[in-house]
Queue: 3 jobs
Job 1
Amino acid sequence: MHRTSVAPSLTRPVARPRARSRVLTRCVADENARARVAGAALATAMTLLSCSPALADAPGANAAAPTSAFAGRYADKKHPGCYREIFPDGVVAGEDGDPGCDATTPRTRAWRLRGVIGVDDRSIFIDFSPKGGPANLIGTLVSPTSEYPRGGVAFPDGNVWAKTP
């Protein structure tokens, strides 16, 4: 008698649909919980930045502003030659070298972070946690001075990003 062999992957029992359904339901519930936490964190940030809960809940408060005083490119003294850019919707992008970004630095690391510009357009809340920094850093708009002719963004640690042309 001739025996045919069956591939091992075909002989494994298939997970019951009911078990898969429970797993999928649990994953969806976890995602919904994460979304609620993220939404609550954003609402808290908006409230802190606006200094007024009524302004944070105003229509369009969470919408991207067509322009912002923060929008533009910046120089960071702690990372010479590495660009920083803030977009009107609060997204912050840049690159880091070790310590700077010049021709002698062979490798730089680009990054992109989420930010929320306050409704007063004088403060910005930036989540630096993807870079290993604080999750709730607030930057304040700096008016033009002799040291910062185009203004900039000041952070609580004393660092200032100077706005560039």
Note: The CA atoms of residues 1 and 7 lie 19 Å apart.
Job 2
Amino acid sequence: MGKIKKVVKLTLGTLVVAGIIGACTNDAEPTKETAAPKVEQKQEQKKEKTPSKISQENFEKIVQGDALTGEGGMSKDEVIAMLGKPGSSSVTKTTIGDKETTMEFTAWTSFRNGTLTVTFTDGRVSAKSFTK
């Protein structure tokens, strides 16, 4: 019976020592479980550093003018200063009454935030829309 107690005590003592040594060393490669939070944290930091300019907030800042003439609307340069260069643009010339008018249809797209479209009539915002 004495031998069994000694073996049990020796085994338990060895396990305790091994556990303490294992806890104190950090030589193991990180597992997916331990690496994942670091990756997520880096992605969150990236989002904070480079917020998308395509947003409901910026859409609401764009001043829309008269639907036919664009009068009273923001200029094209002001919108580009706020959002950057559009992803796509199409220009057409038309005659309204006896006046030739230039209409430009532009779109900014963010796969994360949606699409913001602006129509410029003679260089001024005459229509806008935002879809998520």
Note: Residues 56-131 form a domain with the Beta-lactamase Inhibitory Protein; Chain:B, domain 1 fold (CATH 3.30.1450.10).
Job 3
Amino acid sequence: MVQIPEQPFSLADISEWFKLKQELAALKTKEMLARVNVFKHTFGLNPDTKLEGTNNYELPDHYVLKAVTSLNRDLEIEVLRAIAEELHTKFNIVADDLVRWKPELNLPAYRELCKEHPEAAKFFDQCITAKPGTPQLDITLPKKFQGKGDLTPPSVSEQIKTPF
């Protein structure tokens, strides 16, 4: 894990983070639009373009533009259940051989277990690995201030003591 060095903190840090967040969102959108445009005009017009896999486009001076394409597939569980028997009967194919069932923690049930049966929860914890995720930040304006003109996040450089 990367150690983040200790630094003094001020409201200016919040303003800087918020400004960078806005710039990053704008850059992500611009990059995605540019990427789609480049793909469309280099690979999209070529009938040999693969829907899945790597496509190459020759550039000057021996450079190659590579596009890795994919198809996102979602499994319709109810349809799978409805056709599984017929798939097996007609084609001798077992539907479960085509599907990977991924166990996932039912968090509301787990939290209820922690509350109602802490000893059982502690026993169950043997099969759980928990690690902190990256925090998500956002700046919101309380409803009572909405519609009161263009309010921007604070940019005060006053030092704030952090609780940690």
Note: Strands lie at 53-58, 64-69.
